[in-house]
Amino acid sequence: xxxxxxxxxxxxxxxxxxxxxxxxxxxxxxxxxxxxxxxxxxxxxxxxxxxxxxxxxxxxxxxxxxxxxxxxxxxxxxxxxxxxxxxxxxxxxxxxxxxxxxxxxxxxxxxxxxxxxxxxxxxxxxxxxxxxxxxxxxxxxxxxxxxxxxxxxxxxxxxxxxxxxxxxxxxxxxxxxxxxxxxxxxxxxxxxxxxxxxxxxxxxxxxxxxxxxxxxxxxxxxxxxxxxxxxxxxxxxxxxxxxxxxxxxxxxxxxxxxx
Length: 259
What we know:
By secondary structure, the protein is of the alpha+beta class.
């Protein structure tokens, strides 16, 4: 029987139900092994993830205990003869096998959606991006148990997730869904005030909805924020869109008939 690991949010293992680990250090250790699934993680790296740069004297013994607890937990679910967590010098490895892992599904959907978008298949692209984003359940771990591996993974996931949102919105704009995007885009510019893509998308959605003045106001908001926070003018793409809206450039009009 296969299991599914989910770490795009608090760790849970899905079998015939959903199971969580309550012990924070054990949860953190299993999360690290899942991020590096099918790779050997040295014991010293595991100690850094759990205790930082100043592990206790018996840290190695502690890792062995936590690994034993993880094996007992997973073996109780899989009922297999061999534990997915294997000892491989100089550390341990979680062998994924046929089991599922949510962030790998996320990455596959994002890449497939990107390919569809590049080929002009925006209905399929938008569906893949939406399915990818539906896997997100929130932050992984609290800050007390976040080491370099988890921190790097979180930074990667945050960036790819935002890129996925941007690409999904671009596909929806191409599919004439601009009116339904306006509210979400206003929120996104508030949540990510230095991310110029969201301003560009909001300006375009407003313009295509017959709200030219509001689109120009968004540009002024973006320009003020970037100037105040970074001392920079908006990027060329944003400036070009502003000029195109001022002149009602027909190239901004929607081209229909997209697959």
